[in-house]
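User: Hey, my collaborator sent me this sequence without any context and asked if I could get a structure. I don't really work with proteins. Can you help?
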Amino acid sequence: MKKILMFLYSIIAYLIGFASILLWIASVSNLVPEVSIDGTPQLPVYLAVLKNFGLVLLFGLQHSIMARRPVKRFFERFFPRHIERSTFVLASGILLTFLVLEWEPLGGQIWSIQEGSVAYYISYVLFFAGWAILFISSFLINHFDLFGLRQTYLELRNKPYTELNFRVYSFYKYIRHPLYAGGILGVWATPYMTVTHLVFAVGITAYFVIGAKIEEKDLINDFGDDYLGYKASTPMLVPFTKI
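Assistant: No problem. I've predicted the 3D structure and written it out in structure-token form, which is a compact way to encode the shape of the chain:
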């Protein structure tokens, strides 16, 4: 029964985490006004900026702190280790939903591409390509391990959990973090860039860059020289550059 409950918990965490990503995509798409981060400003600009910065900081701290090994070991002292990843996904999903729903509009417009123009459709091609890269990259890593389902499923089947192997293929031949790169492309590729959207994009981009650098410390610890060699020969976020 305990294993069944853990598996059900991981399914709930997965659904919440996945739904939060879909909400995030919809909120920056300009296609679903009901959940868009744009709207009529309700707070003075300086308060809105401070609140938005705080929302990104809260999400970033949770994401980075809970992913650290000492925190994972502390968690496993009190809870089954098989639900550690699911708990991370659940917390991330809740905070991402909170970030999107509580984001404060700032007003103002940076650019606006005429609807129906070639540039308008190109922007949406890039938008959906970015999110497609993000999702495909999660499956290249192992989508269900990344979201915590593999861990509880193996426990349910009485099979030992095995760490993922270090492999370089598909997008990972060209950049080290295609999942982050896809998210960055997704938040920047828009036909309507408002100040609200710009601040959101800058905040998310900053988090992705910082998060990638922190994550690489763990990857070096896990894979040693293999990852160091990969890091030396492969850009972090932009193909065919040193970035």
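In plain terms: The chain has a mean pLDDT of 92. You can pass these tokens on to your collaborator as they are.
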